Amino acid sequence: MKHIYCEIITIGDEILYGHILDTNAQWISQELDKIGITTKKRTTIGDNSKDITNVLDKSLNENELIILTGGLGPTNDDITKNCLNNFFGGKLVTDKNTLSHIKKIFKKRNFDFTKKNKDQARIPDNCIVLHNQFGTAPGMAFQKDNKLIISLPGVPFEMKSLFTNKCVGLIKNKFLLPFIYHRTIKTIGIGESWLSDLIKNWESNLDESVSLAYLPSLGRVKLRLTGKGDNLEKIKKKINNYEENLLKIIQKYVYGFDKEELESSIGKLLIKKNKTISFAESCTGGFISRMITSVPGSSQYFMGSIVAYSNEIKINNLNIKKENIEKYGAVSREVAEEMAKNVRQKFKSSIGISTSGIAGPDGGTKEKPVGTIWIGYSNKNKTTSKKLILTKRRDINITLSAVNALNQVRINLESNSKGNRHSSK
Amino acid sequence: MKHIYCEIITIGDEILYGHILDTNAQWISQELDKIGITTKKRTTIGDNSKDITNVLDKSLNENELIILTGGLGPTNDDITKNCLNNFFGGKLVTDKNTLSHIKKIFKKRNFDFTKKNKDQARIPDNCIVLHNQFGTAPGMAFQKDNKLIISLPGVPFEMKSLFTNKCVGLIKNKFLLPFIYHRTIKTIGIGESWLSDLIKNWESNLDESVSLAYLPSLGRVKLRLTGKGDNLEKIKKKINNYEENLLKIIQKYVYGFDKEELESSIGKLLIKKNKTISFAESCTGGFISRMITSVPGSSQYFMGSIVAYSNEIKINNLNIKKENIEKYGAVSREVAEEMAKNVRQKFKSSIGISTSGIAGPDGGTKEKPVGTIWIGYSNKNKTTSKKLILTKRRDINITLSAVNALNQVRINLESNSKGNRHSSK
Questions:
Q1: pTM (2 decimals)?
Q2: Same structural domain, B165 and B25
Q3: Sheet of A383-389: strands edge to edge?
Q4: What residues of chain A lie within 8 A of the CB of B297, using their CB?
Q5: Among the three residues B257, B283, B300, which one is the final residue of a domain in this structure?
Q6: Per-residue confidence (pLDDT) for residue B418, from 0 to 100
Q7: Domain check: are A146 and A217 in the same one?
Q8: Do A206 and A136 have their domain in common?
Q9: β-bridge pairing A351-357 and A277-281
Q10: B61/A contact by beta carbon, under 8 A
Q11: Which residues pair with A155 in a beta bridge?
């Protein structure tokens, strides 16, 4: 089976100069990946016919499929259509279906129909017209030297609809494609290089039809396994086997798979264990609550939080002993544990979590430098805490503290369940 | 003055295949624009040395400046460094400063130091090493045929810090650039098209050396004025004049300028007015607190918050009257105002702000559809509230509610000061 490569070409000054973020190219890459086409390159250029022609010319030497987006609007800076027409040596002719579609749209919105809009219905006579039900600019598909070149509008929802409803069929008709299968295993509490060392032997046994990618973010690393071949069931089975062996090594760091996020995986765990949670946040300033409540339905397990930023509020509203703050400081094991315990009792939740630390950039001392964070954990049986030494950067410290706090929930709930399993044997 | 063109090359399978969104290229385009360099092309390729070499080779023919990001990590799929080393004919040698920096990071975090980490300190001997204070992979700058090629890590905060602190200086030293002066005026509480209508006449008077960009984000629109020329003082003066006239029209929507964020501008306003603040957050789930505490030194004016997600906590910990929740519902003027007032009194702050709403995607009714939000505001003289009808999308509703709540603080504090000014006349 011949490997099919694609280049995605994004056209538009507003993307190139960074005025808007290009989300189209990412989306198209993902969709191509699903049907077994490898994106070989992505290119962004401005609304400039010389650049469009150059890039197209080079790309045709390297790829079987080219997908262009953007530059099909009615204004003067939209030149993609004319450029493609010249490139493929066609002639612009009025497409009757497109013209009546555009007229219909204008009538419905009560807009004036100008010459520019009428021009949008003039399409190269040597392309397949891809009817755009949501907008005035149709997509176009050209063929040259057994290659397929597709031009789509840049407006994301128009592009997506055209791609899904028109392009996927065209592409599958044109090329014989392999099957692709991805599996992402998401870890927390272990850095990229340790993880890499830990799974070195396992990794070296991956066969060549399977690839592994490390995708790190703050406090977390995702491992993505990708298999490719002509038999989907075989690939899935192979990847499943690799995953099984991988989990034997790294299970305790795994919080989820594929699209599962940390905050929703913690939510599911709380529901599964029939637990509720509340937070006493100092240095994280509400960020843990914000993460947890970003998940729809979190009111099922999240009771609420006290963001106890000032010592006064720690004392008056979280009932932290004043003498503990005076003796140990607010950033201490004693105060963090008291905060976790008290918020749990106050809010009548199964679990209480606290954070107290010096997020920075100021406020550090020699004994407690910026980045010193205590995370407290309390349930009805025990109250514990953990000290972290993080960075000098406030935003990173806040994020890492929040991620770490959620990881404490995971570790405690999962070790609980292991305990239960053992005791039920 | 020769025009300087740049290509931005993003390296990484995870970007190319669409597993993560490339925000780096957009950010770099914007930063280059600020110093008068035009992004000519952006290219994304995988972790593949042939592709890297090919793209680099072509790019050197077309651009004076090339910026690469990604592929500098410690794992096997990170090949950018070796590739550049071969391309520029260098030799990898251990960079002592980088090695001791990496060792320091590892020691501090109490991590094992592996061979892979040590290898990160091996750098081509023909590049300028760009010290990366936030990570283990340094940036590198090469020169060839009077062109500048810079390689940066892909982790956004490491890349940004290196770009701002090391690259801008290098680039400005290397090339003769025009003077560019930007002034950004940040508005809140008015949509893009209304704003555009409001300032139409002013905008039509801008001369051709000055450009205006509308940069909208949720609940806010930034207006960026850019002037370009060979005399910085002249440009500044011109832009200042335009700004003065603009402010006469839109002053009441303006919360800040240039890099000022909404959360820090509210902080400054609170300090100026000698006020403290606390929040009772329901539908925003901690997001307002998180925004406010993202600002260093916010403990000066932020007392704390209660994230009262459940009605139980609203009743038991915010002292909301149970009969009000039963009679009006938690999402109501009455409850929002009570929440704002009670949190202010409980936390002894000058101002109390509350949010109560249906963030979605579920939980809406005919009378109170998803997106119905109440914002409460309370100071010692008055307690008021405002109803918002937002969208169907949870994430957007949470953000817009938080932004709107902070805008209430701004409007109230600023109208206060106007009142004072009038009464002192």
A1: 0.81
A2: yes
A3: A383-389, A372-378, A351-357, A277-281, A302-308, B302-308, B277-281, B351-357, B372-378, B383-389
A4: 362
A5: B257
A6: 52
A7: no
A8: no
A9: parallel
A10: no
A11: none
Residue B234 Cα, gap to closest chain A Cα (Å)? 25
Burial of A17 (0-12, 13-18, 19+ CB in 10 A): middle
Contacts of A298 in chain B (CB under 8 A): 285, 309
Q: Which of A18, A44, A58 sits opposite B30 (nearest CB)?
A: A18
One domain for residues A45 and A150: yes
pLDDT, tens only, B120-141 = 899 999 999 999 998 889 999 9
Residue A98 neighbours by CB under 8 Å, 6+ apart: A120, A121, A123, A129, A131, A138
Indicate whether B143 and B200 sit together in one domain. Answer: no
Contact between A286 and B302 using a beta-carbon 8 Å cutoff: no
The CA distance from A304 to A279, in Å, is 7
At A269-302, the pLDDT tens digits run 999 999 999 999 999 999 999 999 999 999 999 9
Q: Quick check: B298 contacting A, CB < 8 Å?
A: yes
Total domains, chain A: 3
| Cross-chain residue pair A393–B157, CB shorter than 8 Å | yes
Whether A61 contacts chain B with CB within 8 A = no
Identify all chain A residues contacting B74, using CB atoms and an 8 Å cutoff: 192-193, 196
Which of A17, A346, A360 is opposite residue B33, by nearest beta carbon? A17
A216 touches chain B (CB under 8 A): yes
Alpha helices in A72-190 (DSSP H): 80-87, 96-109, 115-119, 156-162, 168-174
Chain-chain contact of A28 with B20 (C-beta, under 8 angstroms): no
Which CATH number goes with the domain that contains A282?
3.90.950.20
Angle, vertex CA A274, rays to CA A272 and CA A276, nearest 5: 120
Nearest to B21 among A26, A285, A398 (CB): A26
Q: Among A26, A310, A394, whose Cβ lies nearest the Cβ of B18?
A: A26
Domain range for B228 is 179-257
Residues B82 and B194 reside in one and the same domain:
no
**Among candidate residues A157, A174, A191, the one where a domain is terminated:** A174
Q: Which residues in chain B are closer than 8 Å to A373, comparing Cβ atoms?
A: none
Choose among B45, B309, B361: nearest Cβ to A303: B309
Q: What is the CATH number of the domain that holds A207?
A: 3.30.70.2860
Per-residue pLDDT in tens (0 to 9) along chain A, 425 residues: 678 999 999 999 889 988 889 999 999 999 998 888 989 999 999 989 999 999 999 999 999 999 999 998 777 778 999 999 999 999 999 999 999 998 888 887 777 777 778 888 999 999 999 999 888 899 999 999 899 999 999 989 899 999 999 999 999 999 988 888 889 999 999 999 899 999 999 999 999 999 898 888 899 999 999 998 889 899 999 999 999 999 999 999 999 999 899 999 999 999 999 999 999 999 999 999 999 999 999 999 999 999 999 999 999 999 999 999 999 999 999 999 999 999 999 999 999 999 999 999 999 999 999 999 999 999 999 999 999 999 999 999 999 999 999 999 999 999 865 544 333 33
- Asked whether the beta carbons of residue A197 and residue B346 sit closer than 8 angstroms, the reply is no
CATH of the domain at B92: 3.40.980.10
Under an 8 A CB cutoff, do A214 and B286 touch?
A: no
Q: Is A219 left (phi over 0), alpha (psi -120 to 50) or beta?
A: left
Question: Structure tokens of A318?
Answer: 């979280």
CA distance A38 to chain B (A): 8
> Are B377 and B383 contacting, i.e. CB atoms less than 8 angstroms apart?
yes
Domain identity same for B106 and B195: no
Q: Are residues B150 and B9 in the same domain?
A: yes
